[in-house]
Design the sequence.
């Protein structure tokens, strides 16, 4: 990356900079390879944050199916982490995981997990069955049908005819599958193998299989990462997660450049698990050097830029994110390591700028929290707008989840130091309510950024990106007007 003009004398946020177009030989966005090449197996440079309100097993599996990497949070008990990892590994790669609800479930029940939006559907069957067979499926209720049904109506009464099923071994190519769904006049079909339902396929899913490569492990299963803290026996936790099949270990604490992190890193690195080890958070080249020396292969960069984070206002600690990524990425590159830019992205442009600064991948938190697949139920406000609850990882709510087993006195002491936002409504975008909808938007913008720079890969983009500085007015000029003039 190079600056267009003079080198800045102050640290910069994503809003302070822009990309300058340059001569390009990349003719199409589809000629761009977005794989981060950081050893994680990801094929797009998107990582979901290890926050309780962002990443669960459901989101991790969908993200991996489209090439990204989900990081399960360290606040989950070890048994739950083990179960979540194994669940992700069991999910289909070519097909979507069915959302199954029993016939007696109400429309209100369904709306707590799926909004009334086109392109999705509920498989109506007994979810308690060990192996769901196609003859046990009463039908598929399109999610859009939920909008016109009474809340107390039961799903079994909304089924219209037997579900359309496609045999997995006879599955045609994406175009033919799409045409079959159109011909059958359905949005979603069951995919069947030897009589058992192994997944579902929608029209959009068929299209997406032509645009994305799933992130897979050596056995062809979806990849998943998990986070652990630095307190307690970090090595034992790491070994347990590796035994469960985790593909990437993330060692996470708010202040990553500290002795506790270095001790924990050395202990985990000494296990020689053969897994990428991510450590953070840091914002300086010195932090990179120390954490790589202790065993990290990827550095998590960012203190204070997140939407749920109050660190900078509470402590004055942190650093503008673009400059933090730029410095740490250069230091990591010299040591053969990589950087994940963690926090501060609100538009696809910010993801592109993080990659231009040298990040291998970009971590996304609150943006992904407002999706169908994020943990937690869906709620509707007085105006009918659908939202999920989100909270910071240093908030009172997070403290309760992390230390809930403490006695009341010790828990009360911990609460005195809570500083994040404990509850925030993250509204689902009606046009992009699902995780895959956001992935489509982000990657299409980033692919275009690459073509403007004349880059066909992530490393080439970091080399060719031409970055200029702008005023606040310049940033505002780039925004589309919400209404006509």
Sequence:
């Amino acid at each position: 990356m190079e600056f267009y003009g003079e080198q800045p004398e102050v640290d910069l946020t994503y809003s302070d900079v822009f990309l300058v177009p340059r001569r390009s030989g990349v003719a199409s966005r589809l000629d761009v390879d977005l794989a981060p090449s950081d050893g994680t197996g990801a094929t797009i440079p998107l990582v979901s944050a290890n926050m309780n309100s962002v990443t669960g097993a459901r989101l991790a599996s969908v993200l991996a199916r489209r090439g990204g990497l989900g990081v399960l949070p360290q606040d989950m008990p070890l048994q739950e982490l083990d179960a979540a990892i194994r669940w992700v590994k069991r999910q289909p790669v070519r097909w979507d995981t069915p959302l199954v609800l029993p016939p007696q479930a109400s429309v209100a029940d369904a709306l707590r997990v799926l909004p009334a939006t086109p392109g999705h559907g509920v498989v109506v069957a007994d979810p308690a069955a060990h192996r769901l067979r196609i003859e046990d499926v009463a039908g598929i209720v399109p999610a859009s049908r939920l909008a016109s049904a009474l809340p107390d109506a039961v799903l079994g009464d909304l089924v219209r005819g037997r579900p359309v099923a496609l045999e997995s071994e006879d599955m045609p190519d994406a175009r033919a599958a799409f045409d079959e769904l159109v011909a059958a006049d359905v949005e979603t079909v069951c995919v069947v193998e030897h009589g058992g339902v192994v997944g579902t396929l929608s029209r959009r899913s068929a299209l997406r299989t032509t645009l994305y490569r799933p992130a897979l492990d050596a056995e062809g299963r979806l990849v998943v990462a998990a986070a652990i803290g630095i307190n307690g026996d970090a090595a034992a936790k790491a070994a347990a997660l590796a035994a469960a099949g985790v593909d990437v270990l993330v060692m996470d604490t708010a202040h990553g450049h500290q002795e506790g992190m270095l001790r924990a890193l050395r202990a985990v690195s000494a296990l020689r698990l053969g897994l990428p080890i991510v450590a953070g958070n840091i914002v300086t080249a010195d932090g990179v050097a120390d954490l790589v020396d202790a065993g990290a292969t990827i550095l998590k960069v960012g203190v204070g830029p997140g939407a749920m984070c109050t660190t900078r206002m509470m402590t004055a600690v942190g650093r503008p994110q673009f400059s933090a990524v730029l410095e740490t990425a250069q230091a990591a590159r010299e040591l053969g390591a990589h950087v994940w830019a963690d926090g501060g992205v609100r538009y696809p442009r910010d993801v592109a700028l993080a990659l231009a600064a040298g990040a291998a991948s970009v971590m996304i938190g609150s943006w992904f929290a407002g999706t169908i697949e994020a943990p937690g139920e869906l709620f509707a406000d007085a105006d009918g707008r659908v939202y999920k609850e989100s909270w910071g990882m240093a908030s009172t709510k997070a403290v309760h989840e992390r230390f809930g087993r403490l006695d009341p006195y010790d828990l009360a002491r911990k609460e005195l130091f809570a500083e994040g936002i404990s509850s925030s409504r993250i509204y689902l975008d009606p046009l992009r309510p699902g995780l895959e909808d956001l992935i489509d938007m982000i990657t299409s913008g980033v692919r275009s950024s690459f073509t403007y720079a004349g880059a066909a890969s992530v490393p080439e983009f970091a080399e060719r990106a031409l970055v200029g500085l702008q005023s606040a007015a310049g940033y505002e000029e780039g925004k589309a007007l919400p209404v006509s003039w």
Q: What stands out?
A: The CA atoms of residues 292 and 335 lie 8 Å apart.
